[in-house]
Amino acid sequence: MRVLGIDYGDRHIGLALSDPLLITAQPLGTYELTGKENVDRQHFRDLVAKHDVGEIVVGDPLRMNGSSGTRAAKTRVFAAWLEKAVGKPIVFMDERLTTRQALNVLQDEKLRGKKKKEWEDQIAAVIILSTYLEQKRGARDVSKAD
Q: So where are the chain's domains?
């Protein structure tokens, strides 16, 4: 079983995938929503089946003060749709500053325009997923110590 990481945007969705041991996260690409619900639903169903995804982590775009805004509400609507579409549990992960971190990772690359945005979305998804996997491992380590 793997975990799928998602950095949701109105049109573009950054994707990342864990390894089967839930240790690392790798970029999986960027998906551009088509606006056709049946096409988008089938894309995610195929993705989940192909990669044996058992859980999905979606970045939660909280404001810096921790409150939810319009972006968070849109993300939750998408996450509810996705959970219904693929039948896998959704977990939210605080994504504050992940775009900034992604830009820092990409600062030395010579990417521009659309290509840069695609990589930015993927790297943000990797950061969201990596943070989740680290927290999950930490929780397991604490429970083993008890």
A: 2-145
Residue type, 6: I
Q: Kind and range of the H or E element at 4?
A: strand 2-7
Checking phi first, is residue 58 left (phi over 0); if not, alpha (psi -120 to 50) or beta?
A: beta
What contacts 65, CB < 8 A, 6 or more positions away?
none
Name the burial class of residue 41, with classes exposed (0-12), middle (13-18) and buried (19+) by CB atoms within 10 angstroms of its CB: middle
- Give, for all 146 residues of the chain, the pLDDT tens digit: 999 999 998 889 999 999 999 999 999 999 999 999 999 999 999 999 999 999 999 999 876 676 777 888 999 999 999 999 999 999 999 876 666 665 565 566 665 655 656 667 888 899 999 999 998 887 665 555 55
Q: CATH topology for 2-145?
A: Nucleotidyltransferase; domain 5 (3.30.420)
